From TrEMBL:
Belongs to the ABC transporter superfamily. Pfam families: ABC_tran, oligo_HPY. Keywords: ATP-binding, Cell membrane, Membrane, Nucleotide-binding, Transport. One of its GO terms (biological process) is peptide transport. This is ABC transporter ATP-binding protein.
Length: 348
C-alpha cells in the first residue's frame, strides 16, 4: 500500500477522525474531527469526562466501530506506519488487531471469554499472530503469565477468568494484549476498578512492557494522578474534540484552556489543610446529537464571550506541540483582559 506520510518518528497518526452512531433519537456525533500522533516508546494520555469520545476513538483505531449503527465518516484517516488502516481488508485488519495493535479494556471480567481457560485465550493469539504450534504457544503463554506477575502460572493457565481476583484478571488481560508484542498498546481505563496498590502494580507493568518492547502506548483515563506518572504527551478531550494538547509539563504547568483549568482544579492538591472542598465543573456536556455551533464548553465556561456562542474556536499554538482551541487567545481580545483572567486564575 502506498505510504501517505513519511514521518519516521510517528507510528500512528490519526487525522480528522469523525465517528457517529445512528440512533433512534438521531445521529450522535461521538468523535468530531480528532487528530493526534504517537511515536514508538511514547505514552499519549487521552483525558476527559465520561462520554467525551475517548473510548470511541480507541475503538476506531482497533476497527471496532461496527455498522450499521457506527460509522467512521469520510475524510477520517488512521495512519499506521503511513498506511491508512481504514483502507485495510478484513484479513489485514485481523493481522493488525491483536498482532500489531492491542487493547487492554476497562473491565476484564466482561472482556475475557468466561467459557475459555485463560491460557487458551493467550494461546489462540500466539497461534494466530506468531505462527506458533500449540505446544510452543503453551510454553510461551506460561512465560507471559509469569512475566505479568501471575503466581503458579503453570497451574493457573488452566483456570477460568472467574477463578481470578480483579487485579489478577487485569494482569491476564495485559498478558493477552502483549502476547504478540504489539507495536501499539491502547489501555482504556486499565485500573479504574482496582485499589491503589494493584493500580500502581498494573501501571508499572505497562511501563516495563513499553520500555522493553518500545511500544507506543495510548492511555485513556480520567485520572490525572495516573497521567502524571505515565504520560509523555496529553490530549484533553471534550464533547468529541481535542480542545488542548501538548507535552505533559505544558498541560500540568501552563494549561491554556478553561476546561483543562477546571479539570486540574478538581484534583486534590498536596498540602491542603482541614476541610477543603474540591472544585467541580458545573453543568453537563452538550448533547452530541445537536452539538452547539460555537464552543462546546461555552455553557459551562465562566469566561464565555459572544463569539464563543457563535463560532467554533480556532486552534492556537503555544509551542512546538502545545495547542488549545479557545477564543481567549484571539488577537482581537484586548491583552489586559487575558492578563486579568490569568491573574485571577493564579490567585485561585
Ligand atoms: Fe470558554 Fe470561549 Fe474559550 Fe470556549 S472559547 S473555553 S467558551 S472562553
Amino acid at each position: 500500500m502506498e505510504k501517505l506520510i513519511n514521518k519516521s518518528e510517528s507510528i500512528l497518526d490519526v487525522k480528522d477522525l469523525k465517528v457517529s452512531y445512528h440512533t433512534y433519537a438521531g445521529e450522535v456525533q461521538s468523535v468530531r474531527g480528532v487528530s493526534f500522533d504517537v511515536a514508538r516508546g511514547e505514552v499519549l494520555a487521552i483525558v476527559g469526562e465520561s462520554g467525551c469520545g475517548k473510548s470511541v476513538t480507541a475503538r476506531a483505531i482497533m476497527s471496532l466501530i461496527l455498522g450499521p449503527q457506527g460509522e467512521i465518516k469520510d475524510g477520517s484517516k488512521i495512519l499506521y506506519n503511513g498506511e491508512d488502516i481504514l483502507c485495510y481488508d478484513k484479513k489485514r485488519i485481523r493481522e493488525f488487531r491483536g498482532g500489531e495493535c492491542a487493547m487492554i479494556f476497562q473491565d476484564a471480567l466482561t472482556s475475557l471469554n468466561p467459557t475459555m481457560k485463560v491460557g487458551n485465550q493467550i494461546i489462540e493469539n500466539l497461534v494466530a499472530h506468531r505462527s506458533m504450534d500449540k505446544k510452543t504457544a503453551r510454553e510461551e503463554a506460561i512465560r507471559i503469565l509469569e512475566s505479568v506477575g501471575i503466581p503458579n502460572a503453570k497451574e493457573r493457565i488452566d483456570q477460568y477468568p472467574h477463578q481470578f481476583s480483579g487485579g489478577m484478571r487485569q494482569r491476564v488481560m495485559i498478558a493477552i494484549a502483549v502476547a504478540c508484542e504489539p507495536k501499539i498498546l491502547i489501555a482504556d481505563e486499565p485500573t479504574t476498578a482496582l485499589d491503589v496498590t494493584i493500580q500502581a502494580q498494573i501501571l508499572e507493568l505497562i511501563n516495563e512492557l513499553k520500555d522493553r518492547l518500545n511500544t507506543a502506548v495510548i492511555l485513556i483515563t480520567h485520572d490525572f494522578g495516573v497521567v502524571a506518572g505515565m504520560a509523555d504527551k496529553i490530549a484533553v478531550m471534550y464533547a468529541g474534540q481535542i480542545i488542548e494538547s501538548g507535552e505533559k509539563r505544558e498541560i500540568f504547568y501552563n494549561p491554556k484552556h478553561p476546561y483543562t483549568w477546571a479539570l486540574l482544579n478538581s484534583v486534590p492538591k498536596l498540602g491542603w489543610k482541614g476541610k477543603q472542598l474540591l472544585d467541580t465543573i458545573k453543568g453537563t456536556p452538550p448533547d452530541l446529537i445537536a452539538p452547539p455551533k460555537g464552543c462546546a464548553f461555552a455553557a459551562r465556561c465562566k469566561y464565555c464571550m459572544n463569539i464563543c456562542l457563535e463560532e467554533e474556536p480556532k486552534e492556537y499554538s503555544f509551542g512546538d506541540i502545545h495547542k488549545a482551541k479557545c477564543w481567549l487567545y484571539s488577537e482581537e481580545l484586548p491583552e489586559e483582559i487575558l492578563e486579568e483572567i490569568m491573574e485571577e486564575r493564579k490567585n485561585g
